[in-house]
């Protein structure tokens, strides 16, 4: 009963500012995980199309090989169709993005061999022709680099070849229905080494319509910071002697700058924002450098928590990281360790939205829409999502600029 009341209140709140960013040109891509959403009773019809210009379906599991063809999972296709139907019924402008998830090895294998590449492209075409997707996204999180990454060091070259083939499919699907352009998206890393080494950014950004940046550092203990610097690492923790430093760039500010400086039009870049908290237990000596410890060194599992459930128990102490411009919370455990929770609030989102405006980015990609306070447990429903949408609506148009990247 409380959920139904919460949904009614949510709809009323969002109706006060209908179509916040219609006509603005800035995208607000809200990701939706059907399994997680179903576990909390969040149905596709609850996705707030009043503020989401795009809904990203997570995930299509990587298609499996049967003979010389590739096929997506039937359950994923059914869940996606339900989302598409719901969006179409409630919005004439909302667009649905089919995100294809896979490991670096999956994508490397599909892009390197011509037979596999043709099979993958053919499978991707079914998302347009059979399931009515508006866009497909490659969630190729960690392309390979020389002596590193999760794929092959040839990924920088073969990624472009795969995108060229997919671009032909996208263009063909767009030509079938006038006024209904289809799009090609790719998930982009915010790790400076991967951006420079794993992506031919000029060609990638020429072929895709959007680059959605990661919301957290790969393997991270916290949300991606606005600013960061070199991190001091105690090598003895890994069986080595001495200390060392690893340069992780200038956070999101540096990551967006690197993408743009390497040839990606700002309007094609969507800044990633995680609406969930990241919970991890660490030794007490690490809690004072929360904003510097961006990577998952050592053991321990990271638990992702929805924003609305992050502080359901007592005993939390709250802090603010000046370097990352993000909030965090800590809580002592009986085993001598400390639980740390990285999360976003309106204050931290203010800095990220300033970055979107200053860099003239194309908008925001939020992970996940149902991780927000969807029922108004702590006050207003959808506090984070509504703030993002209102800021996007307030950003002046880029029409006044004399030169615009295509």
TrEMBL record:
Signal peptide span: 1-23
GO cellular component terms listed in the entry, alphabetical order: extracellular region
An MF annotation (GO) of this entry: chitin binding
Chain coiled-coil ranges: none
Gene3D superfamilies the record matches: 3.10.50.10, Glycosidases (3.20.20.80)
Record-linked Pfam families: Glyco_hydro_18
PANTHER family referenced in this protein's UniProt entry, alphabetically: CHITINASE, CHITINASE 5
Protein name per the record: AGAP008562-PA-like protein
């Amino acid at each position: 009963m409380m959920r139904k009341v919460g949904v009614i209140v949510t709809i009323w709140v969002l109706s006060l500012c209908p179509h916040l960013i219609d006509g603005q040109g800035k995208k607000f891509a809200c990701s939706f995980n059907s399994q997680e959403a179903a576990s909390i009773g969040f149905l596709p019809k609850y996705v707030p199309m009043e503020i989401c210009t795009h809904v990203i379906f997570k995930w299509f599991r990587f298609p499996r090989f049967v003979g010389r063809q590739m096929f997506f999972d039937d359950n994923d296709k059914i869940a996606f169709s339900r989302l598409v139907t719901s969006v179409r019924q409630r919005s004439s402008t909302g667009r649905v993005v089919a995100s294809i998830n896979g490991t670096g090895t999956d994508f490397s294998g599909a892009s390197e061999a011509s037979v596999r590449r043709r099979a993958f492209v053919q499978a991707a075409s079914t998302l347009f022709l059979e399931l009515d997707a508006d866009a497909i996204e490659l969630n190729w999180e960690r392309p390979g680099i020389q002596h590193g990454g999760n794929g092959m060091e040839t990924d920088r070259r073969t990624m472009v070849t795969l995108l060229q083939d997919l671009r032909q499919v996208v263009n063909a699907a767009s030509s079938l229905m006038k006024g209904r352009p289809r799009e090609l998206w790719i998930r982009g890393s915010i790790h400076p080494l991967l951006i420079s080494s794993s992506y031919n950014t000029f060609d990638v950004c020429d072929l895709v319509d959007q680059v959605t940046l990661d919301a957290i550092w790969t393997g991270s203990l916290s949300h991606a910071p606005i600013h960061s610097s070199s991190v001091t690492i105690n090598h003895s923790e890994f069986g080595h002697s001495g200390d060392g430093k690893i340069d992780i760039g200038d956070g999101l500010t540096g990551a967006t700058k690197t993408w743009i400086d390497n040839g990606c039009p700002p309007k094609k870049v969507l800044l990633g924002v995680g609406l969930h908290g990241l919970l991890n237990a660490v030794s007490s000596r690490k809690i004072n450098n929360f904003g510097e410890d961006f990577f998952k060194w050592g053991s321990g599992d990271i638990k992702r928590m929805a924003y609305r459930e992050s502080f359901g128990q007592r005993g939390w102490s709250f802090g603010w990281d000046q370097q990352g411009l993000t909030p965090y919370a800590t809580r002592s455990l009986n085993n001598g360790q400390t639980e740390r929770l990285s999360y976003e609030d309106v204050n931290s989102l203010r800095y990220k939205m300033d970055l979107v405006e200053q860099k003239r980015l194309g908008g925001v990609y939020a992970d996940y829409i149902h991780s927000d306070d969807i029922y108004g447990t702590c006050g207003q429903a959808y506090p984070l999502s509504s703030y993002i949408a209102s800021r996007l609506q307030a950003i002046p148009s880029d029409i006044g600029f004399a030169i615009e990247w295509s």
